Amino acid sequence: MLKESRLTNEINVENKEHLKELISGCVKNDRRSQEELFKLFYGKMLGVCMRYARDRDTAEEMLQEGFIKIFDKLESFDYKGSFEGWIRRIVSNTAIDNIRKSKKNPLLTDNDEDFKLGGSDPIVENEEIQFLGRKAGIALEAVQNLSPAYRAVFNLHVMEEYTHKEIAEILGISEGTSKSNLSKAKMNLQRTLKEKFEKIED
C-alpha cells in the first residue's frame, strides 16, 4: 500500500482550504470545480494508468472512467488522509477492473509461451527495478509490454506497495499466483531493460 510519506500532494498546506472548496464545488456538480480538480491531478493519475495500460488511448479511457468514480465518491472523502492517495486508490482500482474486463481470467499466471524463463537469471529486487526505472521512458514501455497478469501484480506490489495477501484479495487470485506473477514480471523486465540499455550504450 502506498505510504503517506511517499505521496507528493499537489495541494500544499496553504491550499488546503482551496481543496475543500474544490471538493465542495464538485459535490455540487459545479463544472468549473470539476475541470480544475481534473487538471490538477491529470498528469500524475495518467501516469498511474499508463503503467497498467498497453497504450495511451487505453490509459486515457481508464483515467476518464476513474474520474467519473472519483466525482461520484467525493462526498465520502473525510479529509483525514492524503487526498492524492485517495484518488490514486480509485484510479488504480479502475485500471485493474478494466484489465479484468478485457479478457477471461487475465490475472492468473500466464502460460509459459507468454514468458520464457531463462533458467539461471536472478530475480531482481524492487530497489533494482526502481533504479532501472529512472530511465522512465524505457522502463514504462517495458512495463506496458508485460502481460496483463504480470503488469497488474508488478504495479500493485512494487509501485503501490500492496502485500501479496492484499493483491490476492484485490485480483481474486491466490497468494501463490501473485508471487509467481511478480517473479516472472521482474525477470521479464530485467531481461527487456538489459537488452534496451545495452542498445543505448552501444
Description:
There is one protein chain. The N and C termini lie far apart (38 Å). The radius of gyration is 18 Å and the shape is globular. With 202 residues, the chain is mainly alpha-helical. It has two domains: 4-102, Rna Polymerase Sigma Factor, Chain: A, CATH 1.10.1740; 112-201, Winged helix-like DNA-binding domain superfamily/Winged helix DNA-binding domain (Arc Repressor Mutant, subunit A, Orthogonal Bundle), CATH 1.10.10. The chain contains nine helices and no strands.
Tag the structure with descriptive keywords.
Rna Polymerase Sigma Factor, Chain: A, Arc Repressor Mutant, subunit A, mainly alpha
Output the helix-strand order: HHHHHHHHH
Number of strands: 0
Question: Do you know the CATH architecture of the largest domain?
Answer: Orthogonal Bundle
Number of helices: 9
- Let me know the average pLDDT: 79
Shape: globular
Strand proportion, as a percent range, falls in under 5%
Radius of gyration: 18 Å
Distance between the termini: 38 Å
